[in-house]
Amino acid sequence: MYSFKTLEIAGYRNGPVPNTFLRQDEAAREIAIVLPAWGIPATCRCFTIRLSVAGVGHGCVVVEYNYIRRPDYRALSDAEQKQWLFADVTAACQAALAQRPYQQVTLVGKSLVRCDEHLLATDARFAQSRRVWLTPVLRNDEVLAQIRHSGPRALVAIGTADPFYDPAYLGDLQAAAKSKVVVVDGADHGWRSQAMCGSRFRFLSG
Question: pLDDT tens digits, residue range 137-187?
Fold first, then answer.
């Protein structure tokens, strides 16, 4: 069994970080930290629930930032926006890891989200974390570099109806980085299809 709650998280300039924490009633050894795309946090909610309850047994926290609707965020420079994002994500990760003595961390990023380097630099517990890249923007050099850096610890999941789907890039990632790749026929960038199946991600638990 499991339950949902909101963790009290103070992020950038002590502002609240919206989130949903899924807590397994049994002693979960693993936790997934989901970083949705900016402005559309709901796209990961269904994925998160399936990842957590469909046999994987993770605790899970979804960081539900929605910066695209915040004029104070949009008015900042790129550097200041990154500072805000990193502060919120770091605070959310620390709050999630404080819930239980988790032994394995899985980071799930949607689209352009890329916080791995920052997290690795701030907390050694992420050094061996698994990474899931959900509908990544494969033509973005920073995203590709982070997937390559993750190597065999990474899973890339993308649909054939996603405008960023590109078999050439995926083939490169499989060949060069040994990343696991799941291609779902008909799924678009918003992951709208009957595509997501928890069993596809059972590798996360072992």
Answer: 888 888 888 888 887 888 888 889 999 999 998 988 888 778 888 888 888
Amino acid identity at 59? G
Helices (H), 27-103: 45-53, 71-74, 78-97
Q: Read off the tokens for 170.
A: 């995926």
Q: Dihedral (C-alpha) 73, 121, 147, 43: value to the nearest 10 degrees?
A: -40
Contact 81, 109 (CB under 8 A): no
Degrees (nearest 5) of the Cα angle 52, 118, 176? 75
Taking only the tens place, the pLDDT of each residue in 99-129 is 888 888 888 887 776 666 667 677 777 878 8
pTM > 0.90: yes or no: no
| Longest alpha-carbon distance in the chain | 44
Position of tokens 């899985």? 106
